[in-house]
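Intended use. Records like the one below are meant for learning the mapping from a protein sequence to its folded structure. Do not use them to infer anything beyond what is encoded.
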Amino acid sequence: MNMQLVTGNHAAGQAMSLAGEANRNARGVVCGIYPITPQTEIVEKVARFPFSKGRVIPVESEHSAMGVCIGAAANGARTFTASSSNGLAYMAENIMVAAFYRLPIVMAAVNRTLGPPWNIWADQGDSLMFRDFAWVQLYCDTSQDVADSSLLAFRIAEDPRVLLPVMVCMDAFIISHTSMEIEMASQEQADQFLPDCQIPHRLDSSRPFTTVGMTLPQDTLSHRLELDEAMKRVPAVLDEHRKNFNEVFGRQVAGAVSAYRTEDADRILIASGSLSTTTRDVVDAWRAKGEKVGLLRIKMFRPFPVEQVRRICRDAAKIGVLDRNYSAGTGGIFCHEVRSSLQGTGDQMVQGYLAGVGGGDVVPELVHEVVEDLTRRTRAGEPVWQGIE
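Structure written out for the chain above:
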């Protein structure tokens, strides 16, 4: 067992590097890198890794970092990068291109508040602004989850039934810079878990073809339908490769959702990322008082796990959604998705809570206030801003 005391950034950088090295017998690895707080440690870790075949390419901007990955993936290499906040915003054009080209690029996204005003603390708004692009999005709650999900991301992205890029997201500082003891994969395990990267539509000089040409509306419609079909295959592919992961590493990696004490819950809290760990402790405290409170952690935001949310929340009368993000004038983004998922399935009350927006601390007392508010409510109202002084 290879136990190490590492930060979330270290976990991501090491796991992605092991995945890149695992492709040394195929077309190798390429990583386009550009630093931005709080993800800089990831690209520093990657830059020091002794890859057998491939290149780490420092560039002049985040836009170029994703451009490097696009070019390399189009040529069949295993590719990955990392970014955060306004760096992701600067990368936006190429983030869209990577998905529409069906390139299995993996990106670590360290969730940081978008500015101005400038703020380096945790907020999921940066990755969630790409929620309508065809990227699989996974939100991690611990450094162990970051390490495991980073490896799993390559298996999902490169699966021929999917062939879509994957974001592995973690909360800035709370996970990215906090050290915890985790079980780190070895190179031998990464080699066993990850087959050679095979991109069927890669550029090939012996088989010339035109790509990225002008298309008519009907062609674009067909393309979007193919993306939709690929997204719909992700949940089954995810579960299949989670089983493969367990066989190789001897431990479970969290799936699209995780239910905690929800079997008989009349009130369910829904959270993602590091909010989940705090909320779990609060649920235990309410259970100790005889209150039927549960937690649903959502890890996979795209594609959104509609059926799992419906099944787990089916018998709960009240649902409170904690969002560390904000969509101007409409509240939290996860809350909107939950409401949409539950539409027409019953008369559950779904109340949104904005918690930790802009990186504020979400301490147990704040989550207790959420449960108290949810308990006394008889109807849903406007999103509740938590932590306002």
